Automatic annotation (TrEMBL):
<dbReference type="InterPro" id="IPR017972">
    <property type="entry name" value="Cyt_P450_CS"/>
</dbReference>
<comment type="similarity">
    <text>Belongs to the cytochrome P450 family.</text>
</comment>
<feature type="region of interest" description="Disordered">
    <location>
        <begin position="60"/>
        <end position="82"/>
    </location>
</feature>
<dbReference type="InterPro" id="IPR002397">
    <property type="entry name" value="Cyt_P450_B"/>
</dbReference>
<dbReference type="Pfam" id="PF00067">
    <property type="entry name" value="p450"/>
</dbReference>
<keyword id="KW-0408">Iron</keyword>
<keyword id="KW-0349">Heme</keyword>
<keyword id="KW-0560">Oxidoreductase</keyword>
<keyword id="KW-0479">Metal-binding</keyword>
<dbReference type="InterPro" id="IPR001128">
    <property type="entry name" value="Cyt_P450"/>
</dbReference>
<protein>
    <submittedName>
        <fullName>Cytochrome P450</fullName>
    </submittedName>
</protein>
<dbReference type="InterPro" id="IPR036396">
    <property type="entry name" value="Cyt_P450_sf"/>
</dbReference>
<keyword id="KW-0503">Monooxygenase</keyword>
Length: 415
C-alpha cells in the first residue's frame, strides 16, 4: 500500500494519538508493510519486524540511507563518532562487546547481582522522600531520578557530581521532545551546551580513571577489558554519553508506564503487593503491552528486500513499529489485554537480533524493584489524571507527568 507523501508519518507522530496509539497500530497492521510515497516503509506486524531485526541486510547506519530519502541531519552527537547503536557489524560488534564486558556476563557476571542491594536502597530513599505528602508526580519524584542515579553509580560518577548529571540528563531528554511552542533555536543552543558540558566532564573523568582506576564500568572500559582492542577516547565518550541518555530513558518510561498500567488494573496491583514473585512476568508483560520504545525509525536495506509482498529498495528508510508488533493478534492471543501471566511472551520491547538492548538486564531489574516497592509501600494510590499528559516524542513514549495521590506510606522493611 502506498499513501500520499508523509500521511502515515503524520498519523504516527500526531500528538493526538500519543495517549493511545494502539487503535492506529491496529489499522496499520491490516497492511503489514506500508509505504509513504517518497517516505519511509512502515512495518507493523510481529513476524515481519522480527525477521527484519535478524536480517543482516537491514542497516542501522544512517550513512547507508539514499541521500534523496535521508532526513536533515540532527547534531545530537555533535563532535562525537556514532555510538554503536547506529553502526553495523563488524564495528558495532567490536564496540558493543567492549561496552558489555564490564556490564555483565560473561566477563563480569556478578555486577548486576551485587547492584541489587544498592538499587533497593536508592528506591527506598526516594520513596521515603514522599513522607509528609499525600500526592506526588511519579516522574519528577521517582521515575526520572532513580535510573539517572543508577547510571551514575554504574559509571563511577562521584556522588557529589550526581546532581550535575541529573541536570544534563533532564536537558538532553527535553531536547528529544518536539515542542511546537518552544523557541527551536534556544532549545538547540541549550541542548548543545549540555552535550558540551557533559562531554567535557566525561573526558576529565576518563582521564582520572586512566590514572586511578576504580571498580566501576568507566574504569573497565578505559582499561579495555574484553576480547577486542580497546576503545579510543572519542569512542569512550560516545559510549558513556549513550549509556547516560539511552541507559536511563527507557527505564523512566518503563517504570512510569508500568505504574500507570497497574493503577488501571487494581486487581493486579493487589496481587503484586501480596506476591512479589509476580513482578518478573509482570515486567515482561509491560514490555509487550506498553513498551517504552515504540519504534525504530532508523533502518535501511543494504540491498533490495522482499517482505510481505512488498519490495523495499536499497537505501530506503524503514520504520519498525515494535509496539504494534507487540499487539499483533497473529502472535499474541487477546493482545490488548494486560496479562502478567501470559505464556510464550517473546515480545519486542527491547528489540531483537544484534541490536537488542544490551542494558535490558539492568532495566528489567530496576523496573522489578521499583514497581514492587511502589506497590508495597504506597497506601491506596490512585491516579489524579487519566490519561496523563504525555511527552510529544513518538519514539520514546511515556507520560511527561504522572500525578498520584495516596493515603500514606508503609514502612520500608528492606533496611
Amino acid at each position: 500500500m502506498t499513501q500520499t507523501q508523509g500521511s502515515l508519518v503524520r498519523q504516527i507522530t500526531d500528538y493526538a494519538h500519543r495517549a493511545d496509539p494502539y487503535p492506529l497500530y491496529a489499522e496499520l497492521r491490516k497492511t503489514p508493510v506500508a509505504h509513504d510515497e517518497e517516505g519511509p516503509y512502515i512495518v507493523s506486524t510481529y513476524w515481519e519486524i522480527h525477521g527484519l531485526l535478524h536480517d543482516p541486510r537491514l542497516s542501522s547506519d544512517a550513512r547507508n540511507l539514499d541521500p534523496r530519502a535521508a532526513p536533515e541531519p540532527v547534531d545530537e552527537d555533535e563532535g562525537l563518532p556514532p555510538s554503536f547503536l547506529k553502526l553495523d557489524p563488524p564495528e558495532h560488534d567490536r564496540l558493543r562487546q567492549l561496552a558489555m564486558a564490564p556490564f555483565g556476563p560473561p566477563h563480569t557476571p556478578r555486577r548486576l547481582h551485587t547492584m541489587r542491594g544498592e538499587l533497593t536502597r536508592i528506591v527506598g530513599e526516594l520513596i521515603d522522600g514522599f513522607e509528609g505528602r499525600d500526592r506526588i508526580d511519579l516522574v519528577d519524584h521517582f521515575s526520572f531520578p532513580f535510573p539517572v542515579t543508577v547510571i551514575c553509580r554504574l559509571l563511577g560518577v562521584p556522588r557529589e557530581d550526581e546532581a550535575r548529571f541529573h541536570t544534563w540528563a533532564g536537558t538532553l531528554t527535553t531536547g528529544l521532545d518536539p515542542d511546537p511552542d518552544a523557541d527551536a533555536a534556544e532549545r538547540q543552543r541549550t541542548a548543545r551546551q549540555a552535550r558540551t558540558e557533559l562531554a567535557t566532564y566525561l573526558s576529565e573523568l576518563i582521564e582520572e580513571r586512566r590514572r586511578a582506576p576504580g571498580d566501576d564500568m568507566l574504569s573497565a572500559m578505559v582499561a579495555g577489558q574484553g576480547p577486542e582492542e580497546g576503545m579510543c577516547r572519542m569512542e569512550l565518550l560516545s559510549t558513556a554519553a549513550l549509556l547516560l541518555v539511552a541507559g536511563h530513558e527507557t527505564t523512566v518510561n518503563l517504570i512510569t508506564n508500568g505504574m500507570l498500567t497497574l493503577l488501571r488494573n487494581p486487581d493486579v496491583l493487589v496481587r503484586l503487593r501480596e506476591d512479589h514473585h509476580l513482578v518478573v512476568p509482570l515486567v515482561e508483560e509491560l514490555l509487550r503491552f506498553d513498551p517504552p520504545v515504540q519504534m525504530l525509525p532508523q533502518r535501511t536495506p543494504l540491498s533490495e528486500i522482499d517482505i510481505a509482498g512488498v519490495t523495499i529498495p536499497k537505501g530506503a528508510p524503514v520504520w519498525l513499529l515494535l509496539a504494534s508488533g507487540n499487539r499483533d493478534p497473529q502472535r499474541f492471543p487477546d493482545p490488548d489485554r494486560f496479562d502478567p501471566q501470559r505464556k510464550d511472551n517473546q515480545h519486542l520491547g527491547f528489540g531483537s537480533g544484534v541490536h537488542s538492548c544490551f542494558g535490558a538486564p539492568l532495566a528489567r531489574l530496576e523496573a522489578q524493584i521499583a514497581l514492587t516497592e511502589l506497590a508495597r509501600r504506597l497506601v491506596r494510590p490512585r491516579l489524579l489524571e487519566d490519561p496523563p499528559a504525555y511527552r510529544r516524542n513518538a519514539v520514546l513514549r511515556g507520560p511527561r507527568q504522572l500525578p498520584l495521590a495516596y493515603e500514606g506510606l508503609a514502612p520500608d522493611g528492606s533496611r
